[in-house]
Amino acid sequence: MSGVMCDLAIIGGGLSGGLIALAARRARPDRRVLLIEAAPTLGGAHLWSFLDSDLEAEDRPLLEPLVNYGWREFAVIFPLYKRALPFPFYSIRSDRFDAALREAMPAESILTGRRALGVSPDGVVLEDGTLIGAGGVIDARGPGDLSLLDLHYRKFVGYELTLDGPHSVRRATLIDAAADPAEGFQYMEMLPIESDRLFIEDVRYESWPDMDMADHGNRIVNHAARFGWRIRSSARGQAGILPIALGGDFADYWRSGGEGVAKAGLRAGLFHPVTGNSLADAARIARLVAEADDWSGTALHAMLHDHAARAWAKRAYYRRFATRMLRDTAPAEGYRMLESLYAMDADLIARFHAMRLGFADRMALSLGEGPMPVGAMFRR
Ligand SMILES: Cc1cc2nc3c(=O)[nH]c(=O)nc-3n(C[C@H](O)[C@H](O)[C@H](O)COP(=O)(O)OP(=O)(O)OC[C@H]3O[C@@H](n4cnc5c(N)ncnc54)[C@H](O)[C@@H]3O)c2cc1C
């Protein structure tokens, strides 16, 4: 057995752990931060996308150097209409995330290929017997016990495709739901990368967590065929099954990730209840940690727990929205909710994504043909 000491140990070099390490290193280069990741690389195999308007202004500088691709606006396509929304949209590939972290941090601060077995508020035991003593520990190892939450799932498979010739797609398409809703709650996402290269993802919402990879793959091929494109090759595939929280007890979920240990990312329950996305939350948490003076395990636990508990409570409206869209209505009706949401005022849509809807926005979503009838707004 050998021992290592540091000021802050972050377990899990995925999105949230990596961003905390980056922000902490920038804010306090005098302190020793250790980032511990079980896999050989940081960030897994992801293409993380986000709307610029999801972020708080102070969080942009952390993300800007990580961005691979950006679009000035994005489109949504439904059976009844097509629309471009004037909000920049960005994507980060995890290979760039890995490279940026390795460039910013001293080599001895990143331990990849090292699995944590035991985690406490001020210490970690690795599989190889190494003991790490830390002023404080943050556990960012991905989800806690998801069985404690009432879940639906957003599943997707996406590929970066190189075509035989150029395509004419110019803007990112966040949702192409032109397909028949009778097939279930499904849509395509499409991100043009170069004149003959684009990323296509098949997305579906379902109540069970298994995935039919072949079916997702076929839908991507069929989608390309709809545009008359011939696929020369495919690369950088990604697949995900994201939790969509319709309900659940935050306190139980938090405890399931480790009693008394500070948590971040999905482990802290910080994800959008309708989309499952967590990038903006991860950036915010990274700034909170970097700006905190006290990195002791107790102080970090108090700060991150209070932040996550407040966020969970404030997100009840979005969980009700997801419940109505996914469970209380038939798939065709759920589609119509999305269709009428994206027909609303553009700034309101941005606030929906950023989970910053105000009272007037919620009323607007409930009026007339709005997606969220008043009764559903207050149901638990
Ligand atoms: C394929 C995919 C695409 C996504 N795309 C988007 C998107 O476009 N926008 C968005 O906002 N969200 C997206 N999400 C959702 C969410 O943002 C991601 O899942 C995000 O990576 C979650 O961050 P995290 O830090 O909580 O967990 P992760 O990023 O999964 O990080 C957890 C890390 O902990 C490591 N780990 C686990 N156990 C141990 C251990 N015992 N010891 C050491 N390390 C350990 C894992 O290897 C992993 O690297 C996507 C999810 C997936 C799966």
From TrEMBL:
Q: Where exactly are the transmembrane stretches of this chain?
A: none
Alphabetized GO MF terms: lycopene beta cyclase activity
User: GO terms for biological process?
Assistant: carotenoid biosynthetic process
Output this protein's name. Answer: Lycopene beta-cyclase
